[in-house]
């Protein structure tokens, strides 16, 4: 679709589109990853430079020093666990940035489709309500994500700035003064002004990493909820096809819309499947480490302060919620696509014009094939997969516990 067609839209329905995407755009536009419908070559170059700066900052300022620290402490499970809770998300964040940057142009037509759908929403009050309800779900999720990010910044950045470390265990690579991350540098960070400059740089890179992580994750939610809203509208049209004056034209429109939505889902799956695989792996590792840490606390009788306990619980909740969200989105998408199949099947096609009945065949044939988001095109992202992953991680908890003993 020609993006310039929608560049000058004004009015209430353009405001609805802005309302639906503004929270997601804030994070992605900041780091240069927002898929703009129209932009000049100069704007594209500036966005690419911002993405490159963020990627280099996260990689050189967070990831490499964290890996350097991990190498120094290899062999000690407790110290490695403290390190990996930051290193693995940093690796995942770098992968997210590269893949989304690479696939951004493929997502632009989806954003154009979303803008067009909001413009067309003025044709039906009922359809507009469906879209608003779905968009509100995406807004609630990203609002919660921003709140979680603020809590993480408080524990990781604000408290160490006042000399309160959130480390559960002392680390041989610690410089002696609290730092936001567990890192190791080739220079002496205990001296002034190296310590202050390193602390400020880590703060900036952590903020950019969190914005990248949160923005890219929740952009998936924005697209999936919009597509689910369109599938709801499509289902309603199919179920009441006999009430339209020109049902044959309406059915053709429904088939075309269904094909367009399935193509959008294919693009989303192709964009996010490697990201989901990375999340799949690091969730399994961290969940096992966190479970092992809980068992160790009971075995050793360690007393945690309230701040450390809240911080630990927030970390577990954060990783658990992210993985559960992805699987829930996949489950919702599967359910919505199945409803289209049943809506087409339940239609009174046998009493309609044979030409109209033939037009239902593409919906029935394509609807019989399951539609999944996948992790690396291997594991379908459903709640059954999520439960199986938790069981597998729980098995590794006992392995870690036995190894340490």
TrEMBL record:
It is a multi-pass membrane protein. Coiled coil: none annotated. Keywords: Cell membrane, Membrane, Olfaction, Receptor, Sensory transduction, Transducer, Transmembrane, Transmembrane helix. It comes from the Eukaryota. It holds the Pfam family 7tm_6. The keyword Cell membrane applies. The chain crosses the membrane at residues 51-71, 83-102, 137-162, 204-229, 272-292, 304-329. It is found in: Cell membrane. PANTHER family: ODORANT RECEPTOR, ODORANT RECEPTOR 19A-RELATED. This is Odorant receptor. It comes from Lasius platythorax. The lineage of its organism: Eukaryota, Metazoa, Ecdysozoa, Arthropoda, Hexapoda.
């Amino acid at each position: 679709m020609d993006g310039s067609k929608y560049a000058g839209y004004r009015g209430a329905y353009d405001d609805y589109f802005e309302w639906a995407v503004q929270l997601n755009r804030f994070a992605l536009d900041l780091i240069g990853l927002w898929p703009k419908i129209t932009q000049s070559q100069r704007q594209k170059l500036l966005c690419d430079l911002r993405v490159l700066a963020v990627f280099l900052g996260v990689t050189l300022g967070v990831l490499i020093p964290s890996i350097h620290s991990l190498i120094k402490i290899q062999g000690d499970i407790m110290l490695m666990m403290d390190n990996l809770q930051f290193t693995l998300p940093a690796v995942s964040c770098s992968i997210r940035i590269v893949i989304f940057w690479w696939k951004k142009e493929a997502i632009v037509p989806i954003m154009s489709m979303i803008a067009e759908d909001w413009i067309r929403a003025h044709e039906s009050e009922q359809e507009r309500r469906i879209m608003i309800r779905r968009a509100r779900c995406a807004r609630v999720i990203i609002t919660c994500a921003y709140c979680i990010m603020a809590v993480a910044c408080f524990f990781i950045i604000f408290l160490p700035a006042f000399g309160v470390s959130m480390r559960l265990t002392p680390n041989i690579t610690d410089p002696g003064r609290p730092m936001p991350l567990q890192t190791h540098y080739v220079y002496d960070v205990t001296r002034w002004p190296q310590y202050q400059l390193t602390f400020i740089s880590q703060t900036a890179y952590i903020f950019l990493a969190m914005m990248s992580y949160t923005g890219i994750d929740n952009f998936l939610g924005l697209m999936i909820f919009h597509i689910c809203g369109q599938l709801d509208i499509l289902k309603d049209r199919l179920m009441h096809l006999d009430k339209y004056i020109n049902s044959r034209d309406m059915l053709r429109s429904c088939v075309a819309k269904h094909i367009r939505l399935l193509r959008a889902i294919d693009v989303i799956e192709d964009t996010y499947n490697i990201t989901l695989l990375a999340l799949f792996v690091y969730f399994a590792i961290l969940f096992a480490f966190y479970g092992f840490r809980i068992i160790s606390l009971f075995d050793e009788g360690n007393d945690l302060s309230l701040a450390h306990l809240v911080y630990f619980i927030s970390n577990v909740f954060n990783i658990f919620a992210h993985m559960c969200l992805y699987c829930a989105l996949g489950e919702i998408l599967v359910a919505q696509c199945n409803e289209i199949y049943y809506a087409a099947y339940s239609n009174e096609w046998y009493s309609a014009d044979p030409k109209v009945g033939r037009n239902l065949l593409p919906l029935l044939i394509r609807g019989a094939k399951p539609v999944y988001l996948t992790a690396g095109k291997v594991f379908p992202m459903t709640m059954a997969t999520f439960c199986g992953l938790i069981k597998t991680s729980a098995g590794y908890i006992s392995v870690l516990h036995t190894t340490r003993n």
